[in-house]
## 1
Amino acid sequence: MSKAKKLNFDILTIFPEMFPGFLGFSLTGKALKEEKIEINTHNIRDCAFDSHGSVDDTPFGGGAGMVIRPDVLGKAIDKLKLNKLGEKNSKIIYMSPKGKPLTQDRVKSLSKEENITIICGRFEGVDERVIEHYDVEEISIGDYILTGGEQAAMILIDAVTRLLPNVLGSSESLDEESFENNLLEYPQYTRPSVWNNRKVPEILTSGHHKKIDEWRKSKSVEKTKEIRPDLYNKYLDLQE
Ligand code: SAH
């Protein structure tokens, strides 16, 4: 029998003990246990050239903070023997506020990979030459600044893992979720049907499936238009 495909994550970090963190729980915890994903951490400090384990230095040109050195990080990447160096083909990603924003489409395409290497920055980030030298893709999880790339990496891993085959239960549908067709999901309701004098929209208890679908679609469109005009415009473009 052929072995089920596994998605392997190699994480370059100065805080390996942060992993698996919240990924050890719930659906991602189960995926780890069932070996649908594997998370291997590699401490960048182990590649330092001095006895203190220094990984950073002051920026050329001046300015605040510290930058992760290219020689130290490069040594850590080389140790993984990726791509041109031979043993393993892997995408190399640097979690970075300067990257392209992560979208559900990118998450989907990443879920088809076999190996993903993620560089987690700290301080002011990493020396730019590393990004050029290893053809690294920079990915941002949003327009705000975190203290480190580990949190961002875990979010990427979480989003990718739930799309792997048999990670979500069969009853959980992926194709009606937010961002499918550039729409946010419609509002959801469950029991009790009246709560604090608030009734569930009548249509949902009518049993009329076609009408329910139409209602949900119109709510999706309404919500998207109000909250995310950028997505709504994409939705309109694709309708044409
Ligand atoms: N000085 C940098 C920010 C450094 S924050 C700048 O202005 O662009 C420290 C590290 O946290 C970064 O190297 C990156 O790995 C991570 N990080 C911070 N915000 C992030 C975001 N929005 N998405 C992904 N990674 C982020």
## 2
Amino acid sequence: MKLHEYQSKFLFRDFGIPIPAGQVAKTPAEARAIASQLGAPVVIKAQVHVGGRGKAGGVKLARDADEAHRYAADILGMEIKGLVVQQVLVDPAADIQQEIYLAITNDRSAGMPLIMSSIEGGMDIEELNRSRPEAIIRERIDPILGLNDFQTTHIASAMGMPRAHWRSFGSILRSLYRCYSESDAELAEINPLVITGGGELLAVDGKVIIDDNALYRQPKLAVQRDASGEPESESLAREAGISYIKLDGQIGCMVNGAGLAMTTMDMTKLYGDADNIGPANFLDIGGGASPAQVAAALRIILSDDKVRCVLINIFGGITRCDEVAAGILTACSEVKPNVPMVIRLQGTNASEGNAIISQAQIANIISAQTLTQAAQLAVAAAKERA
Ligand code: GDP
Ligand code: MN
């Protein structure tokens, strides 16, 4: 789950990281009031879940309260990479001498948190990572040992941070690591962390992503979710407890088991790629899927208007195919799909399941025996409706 910039920075502040004393506005009038209270100049910053707001015109420096009003009016309602700006952060403008990049993320291959830091921070960190990866200092943290002072000193020195700032940099890095681990974050990023004209370090931008699997024990963070930028289908899936990721293809996949779900997606690509046909989603209905869950999954798949065919691929282990079949019938009577559905049931009670489906004589249902056959039939059906 992504936090907005203001949420990330307020979280940083709770861990002792210095941030500008800004506030959030939902209207230009509020922005003006905050600007007068803070004293100009201020920066008006779009709060949307995308990077590169600066380059997209979503970060503007206002010299007085009237200008704050005007820029807030420009930015509120603006669309950045498909997301509509509904709130802006009004921050006192920082006097920036130097922009630093500082982030902690998961290094999955090492199974450890990884610190990335560069003296050349700011707006082009992705470009820097491509062109001169050596300009980014990387240091792993052993989660048992924690972050040691020799590591923060090493990072500050290796990145070429002026010596005068090592102590406060070390303290910010330790706070960021505490924030990262205590918040169950996947990413805690400050870009830029600035050195001001007065020689202070200040977190001017923040981005935190919380591990969804840990939200149950992060209630204070969980309530901060802003789902407005999320596809409707993903919100529905989250509420139904179904693992679902929306993709760009035309074949809606309903599968049990993450591995089988990925294989099914690969198969639709294998046979559909030449015609630009592929999976519309990843969906794992989980083990022992109830009729209600099958119905929820079908509703989620069909809420994506790109879907031209549904491919149901179930391997019955603990899940019984006859129960899934009953679930599909319930789902069809509730959801009334208007696209063909290719159904493959294998494993426990498969013949009973297939019998239930064929006896129901629902229009638009195509039975398949093998996964190859199912994928080919689904691709053909999607192509026909192109
Ligand atoms: P991003 O583009 O979405 O990463 O948004 P940032 O918050 O990082 O802002 C982009 C850039 O705007 C920063 O790298 C700074 O160069 C500039 N900027 C942001 N806040 C301030 C500020 O308070 N003062 C000044 N002078 N520049 C700022
Ligand atoms: Mn930034």
